[in-house]
Structure formats: C-alpha cells, structure tokens
Amino acid sequence: MSDQIKTLHLDSVLEKHSQDMSGKVVAITGTTSGTGYVCAREVAKKGATVLLLNRESERSRKSLQQLQGEVPNGNFKAITCDLQNFESVRSAALQISSAHQSLDVLVNNAGVMALEDYATVDGYDVQMQTNVISHFLLTKELFPLLKNSPQARIVNHSSGARLGGPLGMEYFEKNGGNLGGNGSEEENAKFQGPRWERYHQTKLANCCFTYGLKERLEAANITNVLPLLAHPGLALTQLQVTTAKTGGMDANSPFMAQAQSAEDGATGIIRAAMDPASQAGDFYGPAAGWSGFPELLTPEELLYDESNVKINWEGCEKAVGEFEI
Fold first, then answer.
1. Integer CA distances (angstroms), 62 to 2, 54, 146, in order
2. SS3 string of 151-210?
3. Beta-bridge partners for 235
4. Is the separation of the CB atoms in 260 and 288 below 8 Å?
5. Which residue, of 65, 85, 135, 194, is most buried by count of CB atoms within 10 Å of its CB?
6. For 200-211, what is each residue's pLDDT tens digit?
C-alpha cells in the first residue's frame, strides 16, 4: 500500500542527518513492517548490527528474509520479544545482554492502535502494555548496556494522538478489559471514544517517559545516554489495517488519503537514531502534523508536565519494578 505514495523525505534525512553506524548495535521493536522495518533497513545499510525484536511468527520470518534480500551485507539478528508478555520482554533483554557488552541505540518503535478493551496475560490494557509499559521494562533491563556505549540513544515513538487530556493512573494498572469498552461506531469513525482515549494515553505516556528519563539522567550526571522522541505524522502502515479489523477505523477512509509513505513516516526515528547533532530531549517529526520533513520540534508542555511525568513513571515502576539509573 505504501508503495502507492511517493516518498519525499527519506533520502534527504539519510544524506543530511545520519552517520556511519559501523560497529554499533541497534535494537528495534516492531520491525515486521512499516516504520520499524524501514528503520532497520536503513541503519543496517549504514553498517549497524540490527537486533529485530518481534513476536515469533511467519510474518517476522518473512520480514527478516526480505531485509536480508534488500541489504545483502546487513547484519540482522532476530530476537523473540512479545510486548504483550512481560516474561517475554525480560527474556529478550537477557538474550541481548548475554550476547553484547553494550547497546548503542534502542528504538522503542512497536505499537498498536485503538484495539478493543481487553487485558494481556499480565492483566494490563493491551495498548498500554504494548506501547508503553513493556518498552519501559525493555529500556530498564537494557539500561546497563546502554550506559556502556560511548553515546547511546533511546528513541521513543509517539504520534499526533499525544495531544489531549492528562494521563490517568487507572490506565497503568491491572484494569485491562475494564477501561471504557470499545465505543460506538460513530465514535470510532470520529477517532473518539474509549478505545481512542486509551491510545491517546499511550502516545502521551511515551513522551512523558522520554522527558522523565531526561530529568533523571541529568540528575545523575549521565551524559552519554540520549533520550529522544519522534512521531511519524500520518503514515500508511499495517497499524491502520490492524485496528480496522476490529472496528477501530476505516483504513480506506478519505482521512487516510492524507497519509505519507511508511518510508517518510520512519524518518523521525531514523533521524533520532543517527543524526550526529542530536541532543537529549530532541523531538523529531512533521511540523505540520500529518506529513512532512522530520523537523526538530518544540515539545508541548503536556509532554513534560510534572504530574504526567510522575504518573507515567510511577505507573510503569509499579508494574515492572524500579528503573535504576
């Protein structure tokens, strides 16, 4: 589908905002398609060893083969990581720690959108655990390796859905399946209602994680780990296809006609992963909202609001344990 949309910005980002990645290790969640796939492909072309963190499936096996075909000299390694299962996330982190002394880039890319109101095996909302809490856990478990890098990057992925009301602690607790239901057809058509509020909570939480982490790193005088943030605008990926299956949205709606390609949607996380000029807290994405070049953006106050940051951090630590900086 995305090949029907002309890619406008990827080449420019790679030319002006990337670097040689030879000798670096990059871990990316959700690389079977869309922005994660594109990011994995491009950092591999720059010489990185790329760890592909996905649920084990035929889709993940085929995407690995496709990446190997597109980047014949690329160094890819598949790591089984199911973000809907904390045990799987811990196992993936242990596998990475056993094989590598350091980690240079962690791209917390994977996400689900506007899914139905149900709980994971751990009891949490499927969107919050997949998009937020498991990425917090993964980052926490891999943090010792990140600190061993001369300059590590933690790249979190948000979206335009970050904008809205404040975070609520109930979304971080074991309330999966009891967070408002699935909404009406009319609400979902307007991107409103409980399933879209749950999605908003996750996209805001990813921002608050970034800026909460920035505060803690600065307090600990840790300067070699850069927390970074990106958003893809509106990119045509499998994200819309998945939510459309359960009535979350219409992937073929006129709204999606505004979308940019998955390649351009990936340029924010690609820039965050490789721009030599990046500094802690930098936020990349289309300035106009839906599409465009991944500019350096000014984060909205909501993203680093003290109360929101506190709810995100305390909620995640309650779920998966203390994050030791």
1. 18, 12, 29
2. CEEEEEECCHHHCCCCCCHHHHCCCCCCCCCCCCHHHHHCCCCHHHHHHHHHHHHHHHHH
3. 260
4. no
5. 135
6. 999 999 999 999
Q: Which two tokens stand for residue 142?
A: 């891999």
pLDDT, tens digit, 9 for 90 and up, residues 238-279: 544 444 456 655 555 554 555 799 999 999 999 999 999 999
Q: Are 180 and 194 in contact (CB under 8 A)?
A: yes
Domain-by-domain residue ranges, the chain? 2-110+124-176+201-239+259-320
State the amino acid at position 294 in one-letter form.
P
Rg value, the chain, Cα = 18
**Helix (H) or strand (E) segment spanning residue 284:** strand 283-286
Per-residue confidence (pLDDT) for residue 290, from 0 to 100 = 82
Distances (CA, A) of 267 to 71, 80, 185, 274: 18, 25, 33, 10
* Residue type present at position 177: G
In this predicted model, what pLDDT tens digit does every residue of 33-43 receive, in sequence order?
Answer: 999 999 999 99
Residues of the chain whose pLDDT is less than 50?
1-2, 239-244, 255
The full length of the chain comes to 325
Beta bridge partners of 154: 106, 227
Does the structural domain 2-110+124-176+201-239+259-320 have CATH classification 3.30.830.10? no
Total-model pTM? 0.93
Q: Is residue 311 within 8 Å of 321, Cβ to Cβ?
A: no
